[in-house]
Amino acid sequence: MTARRHGAFARHRIEVRKSDGQREPYSPDKLRISLRRAGASDAVARDVIADLEPRLRDGISTGKLYRMARSGLKKRSRRTAINYSLKRALLDLGPTGFPFEQFCGRLFEAMGYVVTYNRFLQGRCVQHEIDIVAERDGQRLFAECKFHNRATYRNDVKLPLYLRARSLDLAATGEGRHDDFWVLSNTTYSEDALAYGECEGLILAGHNTDHYPLTRGLINQHGLHPITCLGGLKVAHKRRLIESGAILCRDLIDQPRLLEPLRLEERQRERVRRECNEILDRGKVRRESP
Question: Is the pTM of this model over 0.85?
Answer without folding.
Answer: no
